[in-house]
Request: fold
Amino acid sequence: MQYRSSSAVLSSCIFALFFCFISVNSYAQQAESGKLHTIELVAEKFDGGYFAYGMRQYTVSDLDGGNATDITSRYPNTPTIPGPTIVITEGDEVTLKLIHAFDTNSSAEEHVSVHVHGVHYDIISDGTLEYINFLMDESATPAMSYEYRWVAAPGTAGTWPYHDHNLLTHNGAEDRGLYGAVIVNPASNIVDVNSGGTRQSVSLDSVMKDYVLYIFDDAFVGTEIDNETSLHTPAGVNPTLTAQENTNVRFHLIALGTNIHQFTLPNYLWPEPGTQNMVNSKALGPIEKLVFTVNASEDSTYTDTAFSSRLLGMQGSFLVNP
Reply:
């Protein structure tokens, strides 16, 4: 397995100290209907000073716990970098237990957590330390797991990062591999694509693949989700992405570095959110995200065209099979 982490990865607390306070919301705003996602994540340590989240157990049920379906097999059976992508829908709730699965004699490494952006949660699910939140340590230790509860309330649709906030330093160890993403699909089950230069709404059920691309300061790191098989596959560094011709595919980009990036996908246009424009490029700063859907029609090369990124070869192939 290949591990990759930029030396200039975002120390998320610089920004997260702001974002966490605007994303922590009362359970009074819970959605009225949806599914319950019961997740058990493990945090493990690898050689070379890297860490990773792994999916140990994942079931989806009604909110009262009935009609449970085990979907653990969709994920690799070992921890991965990036960590597992959690896919939910507006109206869903998540119970996530984090298990600290490595022993350490260093007091600085006792706490490991999950801090998420975008969804709603109470302060005890913020995933920070007591001296930051003035309440309690919201993390797992070698002796005790920790449970988080999230609500994908109306308006939270999008793709959001999650990451450690406590290991090694209060900034966390996302630069050592402890990061992943939460996709919150819209309750409408609709996404927009470009059709002959105009915006067309299509069903999410028509999206055959999802590509989750994390933009670091020296490389893309990816995960590919095949929605026909439901399998999640870590795709490596500057990965080659594949699609079947004339199928809809969705890109999810999350900038985790400290640089400004310019993501470009030549030969393709997608609807710019909030406008009637069709674009093929988007500037992304730290913690910013971009989600768009295209119909796979021809090969392309996705690229970060910012000057320093071009020098580092930040690009990958998007190949369309007939």
